[in-house]
Structure to design on (372 residues):
DNA sequence: GTCTATACAGCGATAGAC
DNA sequence: GTCTATCGCTGTATAGAC
């Protein structure tokens, strides 16, 4: 029981997320997670009784909720689908710090922890792809599903290549190309 | 000194590579590496005095050599550049087991071990991109550099998405789209 | 609730028998 | 050359003081 500051758990999530992004699931030690969140191990386990796995699941939920609200919902609901797609590209560039920040979901998908988080990983990408396909369809594009799959995958590849070459311009150029490919009249 | 079978080191590389692919650098324990290679720790350290890092560097060298011979060289030298690009797509599909196999270089790029292997990681992708741009240029395509960057990054993204959705068809569809985008007349 | 202390397992690496 | 035994360390997780 007990009345910890009601949002102690939520308050820690951004710090935890950043540690997972920077070090991966295996490399994110409880010492690092606690230090960055400003909590001792006791407090961490009080907020997340399931330990590291529960922390990661909560982080993935928070990431999914952010994308759902800021990106997927506009793609589905904005009466101007092209504007929603442009918004998606701008928000994506900002969220990933122009390619300097790793996508935790993509990194987990490649790791051997994939199975543990399979549902959330698959949901994140399926939702993104389907919301984008919806917007492209409403914008009158043919083969909206293929185009959406291609764009979602390119964003992940852009993050890989930008980090591999240590060159954030790679990601910026990709977003430019995507804007033309997705928003220019067919 | 001593005359270990001259290729003991080389013979172990494919097994070591597979363990690194499946478990990542951090997750590839010496126990796993030795078991899969059929060697005890003593033999492993005899072949790779630098330990796990030397094993990974040797694996990356072998991967780079394979791609250089099978993919980059034809892209640069084949008198029919479109045929070389088609060959690249076929070989890539086979190498990554139609998307069921992870790209070790891409996974390392996302991990926090990136810096340790930065030179080989960057070289792998830069060579691929430049060789493909060369072939596209010889095929008479405009904006060959952009097109090449986009294709190399899409392959990495395709591997991420195929694994995230646990759906190898994602990767197969991507290779089909790339063939049209790269080989069809402009 | 938050801390420190600790249990216990697994890691990379090394030493030394054979 | 290859093995087993072991070192020193770090990991997650838990117990218990406060």
């Amino acid at each position: 029981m007990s009345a910890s500051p009601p949002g102690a758990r939520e308050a820690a999530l951004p710090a935890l997320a950043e540690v997972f992004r920077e070090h991966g699931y295996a490399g994110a030690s409880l010492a690092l997670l606690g230090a960055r969140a400003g909590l001792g191990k006791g407090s961490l386990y009080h907020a997340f009784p399931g330990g590291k796995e529960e922390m990661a699941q909560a982080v993935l939920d928070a990431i999914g909720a952010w994308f759902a609200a800021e990106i997927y919902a506009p793609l589905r609901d904005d009466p101007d689908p092209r504007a929603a797609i442009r918004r998606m590209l701008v928000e994506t560039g900002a969220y990933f710090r122009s390619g300097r920040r790793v996508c935790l979901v993509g990194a987990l998908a490649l790791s051997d922890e994939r199975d543990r988080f399979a549902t959330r990983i698959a949901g994140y990408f399926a939702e993104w792809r389907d919301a984008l396909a919806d917007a492209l369809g409403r914008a009158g594009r043919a083969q909206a599903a293929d185009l959406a799959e291609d764009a979602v995958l390119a964003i992940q590849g852009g993050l890989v290549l930008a980090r591999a070459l240590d060159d954030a311009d790679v990601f910026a150029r990709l977003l430019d190309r995507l804007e033309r490919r997705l928003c220019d009249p067919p």
